[in-house]
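Researcher:
Attend to token order:
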Amino acid sequence: ELRNIKKQAEETTKRLEARSKQKEDSDVQQFRDREVSLRTETTSLQTTLQELVRSNGEKEAQLRKRKFKIESEVENWIHKYDQDMDEKQTELEDITAIYMEEKAQLDELSARHADLKKEYEAIMHERQIEDEKRMERERHLKRQSNAATRIQAWFKGWKVRRDLKKQRSGSGKKGGKGKGGKGKAKGGKKK
């Protein structure tokens, strides 16, 4: 029985070895196939990588050129902006100086205008007072003239009435009140 067990063990061992060898050969073949596949893929990927590196290198060179060009343009714009701002600042300072000078002249003229306006108002006030006085004198003169005219008219009327009265009384009666007689004349009221 030991021989049988030994024989069975050997057969089992051989079978196991054969299976193991078969499995090992199969695994080795799979690993080789896998290795070939991976090497092919690696080669393909390395080629792709080299193409990408070359392509990206060209793109990077183009982008660097573009970046340099844009930076140059930006520097030129900044330089132009600085020049423009310097010119504008100089112009602003000139305009400010002119403005300050004109403002000083305006203040001086405003002060002079205020003085002249005060003088003008004083002169106009004096003229107004003189005009009022002249108008009052003219009104007074006109009143006096009207009064003198009325007095003269009354006196002439009185004289005429007196002369008429004398003529009437002289034709019918002699005597009467002489010059300077007192009596009211008709129609001698003020108008």
